[in-house]
Design brief:
The chain has 237 residues and is an alpha/beta fold. Helices cover 27% and strands 22% of the residues. It has one domain: Ribonuclease Z/Hydroxyacylglutathione hydrolase-like (Metallo-beta-lactamase, Chain A). The strands form 2 sheets. It has a 7-stranded mixed sheet with strand order 1-2-3-4-5-6-7. The longest helix is centred in the first third of the chain and has 13 residues.
């Protein structure tokens, strides 16, 4: 599918929508525009997706990317990184070694099929990867080149905060104070499907801790942006 153009959410934060079809596992990507170079939050789920996002950014007249932030190491957030030119990749330190191990795996359509045969619970994720990837010749998984442990503020004023959680140990939120936007990635989601127990659900306690009068918008990667008022209603039920 063609990636829709970015829409401005608030201030200098733009959202490139994902695909609502859950089988495609293509989340939204945020762009924090800055004259010194934009901060892109998450890389897209494939090199082709990343190139579509880049075209959308150019068409919207936004500054080219200078920083690429990983909210966490899962494939649909990082597999597009190898198609982003001239960016500094930033992520939590605990994701760096995970991605080094992922980069060493012999990725191919055959490998995906073999892994699903060995563990059928991988089926939804690995079938989505096969659909996303047009080829493997120039594909590589890139760990973050710049890491942090607790918090990091980029030169553009974007604040990165490690929150961890059941979904991924390196889950990071990206905060844009001047635009009053909090980009949550998948931090409060339950574990990935192949690791999920029947009683696993969203971590609403984490969401409650993240809510603040300082931020008017909360954006996760696979849902629509939520206002502070809407988020408070959701976590109070």
């Amino acid at each position: 599918m063609d990636t829709p153009g970015p829409r401005r959410l608030a201030g200098r934060v733009w959202i490139v929508p994902g695909d609502p079809d859950p089988e495609n596992i293509r989340g939204s990507v945020a762009v924090v525009a800055d004259d010194s170079g934009s901060v892109v939050v998450d890389a897209g789920q494939s090199p082709a997706h990343a190139r579509e996002i880049q075209s959308a950014i150019r068409a919207a007249g936004l500054p080219p990317a200078r920083w690429l932030v990983y909210t966490h190491h899962h494939w649909d957030h990082v597999w597009g990184a190898c198609a982003w030119p001239d960016v500094e990749i930033v992520g939590h330190v605990s994701g760096q070694e995970i991605l080094r191990r992922e980069a060493a795996r012999p990725w191919s359509h055959r490998y995906l099929r073999d892994e699903v045969r060995a563990n059928p619970r991988l089926g939804p994720s690995f079938r989505a990867r096969a659909l996303a990837m047009q080829g493997w010749d120039d594909f590589t998984i890139l760990p973050p080149g710049r890491t942090f442990t607790d918090e990091l503020t980029l030169p553009t004023g974007v604040r990165l905060r490690h929150v961890g959680g059941a979904h991924a140990p390196d889950s990071t939120v990206a905060l844009v104070p001047d635009s009053k936007v909090a980009l949550l990635g998948d931090c409060f989601y339950p574990p990935p499907a192949h690791l999920r127990a029947p009683d696993d659900g969203p971590d609403l306690a984490m969401v409650r801790d993240l809510l603040s009068d300082d931020y008017e918008w909360y954006v996760d990667s696979h849902g629509e942006p939520t206002t502070l008022e809407q988020a408070r209603r959701l976590v109070s039920t």
